[in-house]
Amino acid sequence: MALMLLAPIVGFITMLCVALYYSWVTRQDAGTPTMRQIASHIQAGARTFLKREFRAIACFIAGGAGVLLLAMWPLWQIAFGFVTGAVFSMVAILIGMNAAVRTSVRTSSAARTDPGKALTIAFRGGATMGLSIVALNLLGISGLAYLFGVSPDHPEAVSLLVGFGFGASLAAIFAQLGGGIFTKAADVGADLVGKVEIGIPEDDPRNAAVIADLVGDNVGDCAGRGADLFESGSDNLVAAMIVGLAFIPRYGWAAILFPLLSRTIGAVGAILGSLAVRGAGKKNPATALNTGLLVTAGFSLVTFYLLGTLLMKDVAVFYCASLGLLAALAVSGVIQYYTGMGRKPVAKIAESSLFGSPLNIITGISFGMESTALPIVIISLVMLAAYRISGGGLDGIYGITAAALGITELKGIIMAADTFGPIVDNASGIAEMAGLGPDVRRSADVLDAAGNMAKAITKGYGMACALMTSAVVLFAYLTELARHAGIEFTSFPDIVVNMVHPVNIAALFIGATIPFLFSAQAIRAVGLTAHQTVDEVRRQFREIPGLLEGRALPDYSRCVDISTRNALHHMVGPTVTAIVAPIAVGFLLGPWALAAYLVGVKIVGAALATFMFNAGGAWDNAKKSIETGKYGGKGSEPYKASVVGDTVGDPLKDTAGPSLHILIKLENILAITLLPLFLKYGMVWK
Amino acid sequence: MALMLLAPIVGFITMLCVALYYSWVTRQDAGTPTMRQIASHIQAGARTFLKREFRAIACFIAGGAGVLLLAMWPLWQIAFGFVTGAVFSMVAILIGMNAAVRTSVRTSSAARTDPGKALTIAFRGGATMGLSIVALNLLGISGLAYLFGVSPDHPEAVSLLVGFGFGASLAAIFAQLGGGIFTKAADVGADLVGKVEIGIPEDDPRNAAVIADLVGDNVGDCAGRGADLFESGSDNLVAAMIVGLAFIPRYGWAAILFPLLSRTIGAVGAILGSLAVRGAGKKNPATALNTGLLVTAGFSLVTFYLLGTLLMKDVAVFYCASLGLLAALAVSGVIQYYTGMGRKPVAKIAESSLFGSPLNIITGISFGMESTALPIVIISLVMLAAYRISGGGLDGIYGITAAALGITELKGIIMAADTFGPIVDNASGIAEMAGLGPDVRRSADVLDAAGNMAKAITKGYGMACALMTSAVVLFAYLTELARHAGIEFTSFPDIVVNMVHPVNIAALFIGATIPFLFSAQAIRAVGLTAHQTVDEVRRQFREIPGLLEGRALPDYSRCVDISTRNALHHMVGPTVTAIVAPIAVGFLLGPWALAAYLVGVKIVGAALATFMFNAGGAWDNAKKSIETGKYGGKGSEPYKASVVGDTVGDPLKDTAGPSLHILIKLENILAITLLPLFLKYGMVWK
Fold first, then answer.
1. CA angle A104, A105, A108 (to 5 degrees)
2. Which residue in the set B355, B517, B651 is minimally distant from A192, CB to CB?
3. For all residues of chain A together, what is the average pLDDT?
4. Set of chain A residues whose Cβ sits within 8 Å of the Cβ of B323
5. Domain ranges of chain A
6. How confident is the model at residue B237, as a pLDDT?
7. CB contact under 8 A, A530 and B599
8. What angle, 0 to 180 degrees and rounded to 10, lies between the N-to-C axes of helices B637-651 and B590-627?
9. Pairwise CB contact (< 8 Å): B365 & A523
10. Residue B283 above 70 pLDDT?
11. What's the pTM value of the predicted model, to 2 decimals?
C-alpha cells in the first residue's frame, strides 16, 4: 500500500515542475508592441473559444452525470468519477493552452537574437502541457482509488474508476472535434481565398481569417491533442488495472499496482527528458528533441526491468513493455516514410501535380491507403509476440497489456514535443505578421521544420498508442463482462465472442460503419464552416477599401466568431452518433454482440484514421516540397494543384483522423461503464 | 435426381435466347459509313485489348491449375473445375462484349428515327450479356456436378465445385482490374486535357484519347461487371450448396437442390423480364426498364413460394428469400438517394463547387462516407431477420443463405440493365463523334439518363449481393472447416472463431488492411497510366498540325495501346496481394484465424467499396447537374471545380470499388479451396 502513495506524491512533484516551467516561460521577453498586440489577439480568440467550448461541454457533462447517477444508482462513484475525469481534462487543457499562447510570442521574440534559447522556450512551453497531463492523470486516478477504497482487500473497486475514463473521453471528443473543426475551417477558408484566389502568402495580415487560423493551431493541435492524450492516458491506465483484476491469482496485488507504478515512473521519466532538451547556438533543434526522447525511453526501459523483476517477478513483463516501446518507434518510422519530405510517396504526389489537381489527389489517396498496411501489421505482430512471450492463453493478455503500458510510457515527453509544434508554428506566424525580417523568419523556419518532425513522430506514436490501448480496453470490457456474468475467467474458452455467429457479424458490420459515419460528419462540418469563412474573407476584400493594398486592416474577429459558433454547433452531431450507436447495440443485440461491435469500430477506425493522417500529411509535404522551388515553385500550375491536395487533406488529418482515435476508446469505455445495464436489460439472442 | 436435369436444360434454352437476341440485334441497321467507321475503331480496340488480356489471364490460370493439381492431388477435380470456371467466365465476357460493341452503333442509328426501337435494341444487346452469364453459370456448375458424381448418395461431392468458383473469381479479378484500369486511365486522361486544359466537350473527335475512352466503357463497365456477376453467381451457388451439406439432416437432398433450382428458375425469370422490356414511341425508357425488373421480381417471388412450400416444406425459406429481394430494392433506394440528381447530397456537392475544388472534394468524401451506414445496416438487419425467421441457431444460417439466393435471383435482368448503360453511353458518344445533330443527341441523352438510373440500381444491387454472398461464402468456409476438422456441426457452439483471442484479433487487423492496400494499388495504376495518356494527348495537340482546328485527325491507336499495356501490367500487383495474403495467414496463423481474416476483409471491403462507389457517383452527377446550367454551367469556375471531383471519383467508383467486391469473394473461395492444405500444414496457436 505504501507503494500506492508514490503516485500522488510524484503527481504533486510533476505539477510543481509545471509551475516552474510556466513561470520561467512567462518571465521571458514578449517582444515589440506589435508582436504583443498580435499575440493578444490570438490569446483573446483562444480564450473566448475555450470559454464557450467549456461551457458547452459542462452542460453535456452535467446532463451525463445526472443520467449516470440515476441509471447506475447506488454506484454514485461512476457519476462522480465521470465529472472528475472531465474536469481534470479541462484543467489540463486550460493550463496547457495558457502556456502555449504565451510561449509562442516569446519564442519569436527570442528567435530575433538567440535561436537556441527560442528552442528551449518553445519546448518548455510545450512541456507545461505534457507534464500537466501526466500529473493530473496520476492525481485524478490515484485520488479516486483512495476515495473508492481500492486496496489489496478490495481490488475489485478499480472497476469503479471507469467513470473517470468515460468523463475524460467525453471531454476529449468534444475538445478534439470542436478544436479540429475550428482550426481546419479557418485554415481551409484562409487558404482558399488567400493562396488560391488572390495569391497572397500564408499568414499574410491582409487575410481576415489569419488570426482565426493561428488561434486554431492552439485550440486544435494543442488543446485537442492534449485532451486526446489525457484520455488515452486515463483509459489505458484504468483498463490495465481492470485487466489486472483477472491476474490477481497469478501476480497478487502487484497485477494492479504495476500499471499505476509504471505510469508514476513514466512521469519522472518525462521530467528528466524535458530537462534534457536544451537548445544551444547552432545545434540542430531536431537533435535536441531526440535527446529528450532518448533520455525518457532509456529511463523507461531501466525502470520496466526493475518493475518486472522486483515487483512482478516475471521478466516477460519487461520484454513485452520493451516491445511496446519498439513498436512505437517502428510505426513512427513508417509514418515518416509515408509523409516525409524527399521520400518516395511525397515525391510522387508532388510529381503528379504536374498533371493537374485530380491526379495529385488520386495519388495521395493511393499512398494514404497503402500506408495503412505496415503500421497495423506491425502492431499485430507486436501483439502476437507479446502474447507468445508471456506464455499465451490468458497469461498472454497481461503481456499485451504490458506492451501497451510500454507505449504509453512516453506520453509526457511526446506530448511536450507535440505542443512544441503549434507553438513554433504560431511563433513563425507572429514573426510574419509583425514583419520581423528574413533572419528571424529563417530561424523560425528551422524550428518549424523540427516541429514538423516532432508532429510526424507524435502521429505515429498516437496511432500505435490508440491501437494498443483499444486492445487493452477491449480486454477490460471482457474482464468486466465475465465478472458481471459470473463467469470465472481463467482461460480463453471461458469467454467467447463467436465471430461467425450472425448476431455478432451484424454487430461487427454496424460497428464498421460508425467510423465512416463519424468522420463524414466531422469532415462535413469543416466544409460547411469553410464556406462561411470563404464568404466572409471575400466580403472583407470586396468591402473594406484599401485592404488588398495593405492600407487597412481586416476585421479578424468575425472569422474567429464564425469558426467558434460552427465548431460548437457541429461537435454535437458526431458525438451523439458515438454515444447512441453502442447503447443501441448493447440493448438490442446484447452485451456479447457489443464486444463484436467494439471490434468493428476498432479495426475500421484504426485503418481509416491511418489513411486520413498519412494522406493528409503527404499532401501537406508535397505542397511544401513544391514551395521550395520544384516544378516551378510557388504560383505555378503544379503548385496550385498541390494546394488543392493539401486543402483536401486538412480536415482528414486534423479533424476526422485525430477524433477517430478518441472515438475508438470512447466506445470501449462507454461500453464498460454501462455494461451492468446491458446485462440487465439487453436482449438475449440465442 | 430428375429435378437436377432441369438446370442444364434451362441453361441450353437460355443460350438459345442469347443466340436469338444476338442475331436480331446484328440484323439491325448500322448507320452511315462514318458511324460504321467509328464503331469499327471501337470494336478493333476492344478486340485487341480482350485478346491480350485473355492471353495474360490464360497464363495465370494455367500456372494456377498446375499448382492446384500438384498441391491438391489426388483431387484433380479442383484444378479441372478451376480451369472450367475461368474459361466459362471468359466465354461469357466474349459473347457479351461482341454483342455490346455491335449494339451501340445500331442503337445510335435507330435513335435517328425511332427512339423506342433504339431502347429495345440497346436492351436486347445488354440482355445477350445478362442471359449468357446466367446460362453459362448453370451449364458449368450442373455439368461439373454430374461429372463429379454429386447425387443424393454422394452429396459431399459438391465441395469439389469450389474450383469452379475459384477459377471464375480469378478470371473476374483480372478482368475487372484490367478493364477498370483501362477505362478510367483513358477517361481521366481524356478529361484532364480535353475538358480541363483545352475546354473541348466530352467525346470530341479531336481528343486522341476519345476512342480509348469509348473502348473503355466496353472493357470496363461491360466486360468487367460481367465477370464480376459471373463470379458472384458461381460463388454464391457453390457456397449455398456447400452450406446445404450441413442441412441434409434437416431438409434431406432438397437442401442442396434448392440453390440450384432457384437459380434455374431465376434464368427463366430473366428471359421473361427481358422480353417485357420494349421501347415504344415516347414512352419513358426508365418505365420500360422497371417493367422488366418487376416482371422478374414477381416471377421470382411466386417460384420461391412454390419451392419453399413444395420442395423444402418450410415456408420460412420463402420469407427469407423475399427479404433478400426487398433488401436489394432498399439498398438501391439508398444508393439512388446518395448519388441521384436533385437529391440533397448531389445538390450540396454541386453547391460546394462554388467555393473551389477542395470543398467539392471534401463534401463528396463526406457524403460518400456517410452513405456507407444505411446499406450496411439494412443488410445487417435483413441478416438478423432471416436468422430469426428461420428459427435462429444453426437453422438460421440456412435462412441467411436463402436470403442471399433471393438477392441473386435478379442477376440476369440486372446484368442486362447494367450492360444497357455502357451501350447507350457508347451510342451517345458515336452520335457526338459522327456529328449526328441535336435531335439524335437528345434522344440518345434520354436513353443515357435511363442508363444512369440503371447503373445506380445495379450498383446498389451489386453491393447488396456482395455483402450477402460474402456472408454465405463465410458459412461455407466454416462448414468445410468443420467437416475437414471432423467436428459435427449441429449447433453454434460447435464451431467458434473467438473474436477476442489475440491471434484472431491480429488476423482481423491484417484482413482489415487488405482492402486498403488492394485499392491503393488499383487507384495508383489509374494515376500512373493517366499520366502517360495526358502526355500523349498533349503531345498530339502540340505536334499534329491543324488538330485543334479540326482539320486533322489524332492517332487514336496510341492511347488505346497505352491503356492496354498499362492495364495488363498493373492488374497483376493487386491480384498478387489478394492471393498471397490469405495464404500467408492460413499457414502462419492457421485456418481458424483465417476465418477472422476473412471477416476483416469483408467488413472493411464492404464499407470502403460503398464509400468509393457513392462518392464517385455523387461527384459525377454533381458535375452533370452543373452541366445543365446551374452555377454558371459549362466552362464556369464551379464547373471546373466539379470536373476535378468527378475525375477523382473515376478510379474510385469504376476501378477500385468494383474490384473490391470481387476481392471479398475471391478471398473466401480461395480459403475454401486451399483449406485442406492449411489444416495439414498451418501453424497451431493455443
1. 90
2. B355
3. 90
4. none
5. 2-681
6. 93
7. no
8. 160
9. yes
10. no
11. 0.94
